């Protein structure tokens, strides 16, 4: 059994925040893979289903971000899981918007949700780091992550979330490479092999047909008199 955790803050006020991209990822996985309805448990929202051959729990802690570890720790102990069974989806300031990376273990890098998880279950869980970009000033981070995604973010965000759902089976089966490829196919879809490149008018235009050289002798009219031509012949 695997426990997939999405980090965020509960309530409509925060639903569209950059900080809630982990919640968004789990919602998309649950919808696309036909999970059971969400129910309240372990200080959070929980649903159950299957991804491939694996039974999977999805958990969105509702303790607010800074106390996420309380909810996750409670669920982990109840199901007798280890940190190796837990995969956490969270926002990542140090990745550009639309970039996703999978990481096993490591530090919390100041992320309050991860900090709480470290305190309750240790650092040895898998993270799906979902890039949201950085505001450029560390003093602006708090307000940045607690603001909704901009309208300009809608396309790449939709692609990333759909990619996470596409690759969810590979992720729980331990193939992070295939999971990343699934996201890549959404964010940067391959070009059709049947598409024909547009001709480059600077280089692909047909060469002009060569024009025949003029026959100068044929085209030059002889204006000499017969007498003059005779004299010129013997001069």
How would you describe this structure to a colleague?
- The protein is of the alpha/beta class.
- It is built from 9 helices and 7 strands; from the N terminus they run βαβββαββαβαααααα.
- The chain has helices spanning 21-32, 68-78, 112-121, 141-145, 154-166, 168-172, 176-187, 216-219, 226-234; strands at 2-6, 39-41, 44-51, 54-61, 86-92, 100-104, 126-131.
- Helix 1 (21-32) packs across helix 5 (154-166), helix 2 (68-78) packs parallel to helix 3 and helix 5 runs antiparallel to helix 7 (176-187).
- The relative contact order is 0.14.
- The model is unreliable at 200-205 and 212-220 (pLDDT under 50).
What topology emerges from the helices and strands here?
Layout: E1 2-6, H1 21-32, E2 39-41, E3 44-51, E4 54-61, H2 68-78, E5 86-92, E6 100-104, H3 112-121, E7 126-131, H4 141-145, H5 154-166, H6 168-172, H7 176-187, H8 216-219, H9 226-234
Parallel strand pairs: 1-4, 1-5, 5-7
Antiparallel strand pairs: 2-3, 3-4, 6-7
Helix pairs in contact: 1-5, 2-3, 5-7
Keywords:
alpha/beta, 9 helices, 7-stranded mixed sheet, 235 residues, single chain, 34% helix
Number of separate helices = 9
| Rg on CA atoms, Å | 34 Å
Q: Can you give the helix content as a percent range?
A: 25-40%
Instruction: Give the overall shape, derived from the CA principal axes.
Output: globular
Number of strands: 7
N- and C-termini, Cα separation:
115 Å
Strand order of the largest sheet: 2-3-4-1-5-7-6
Name the average pLDDT: 88
Helix/strand-derived category reads alpha/beta
Described by strand count, sense and barrel closure, the largest sheet is: 7 strands, mixed
H/E series: EHEEEHEEHEHHHHHH
Strand content: 15-25%
Point out poorly predicted stretches: 200-205, 212-220
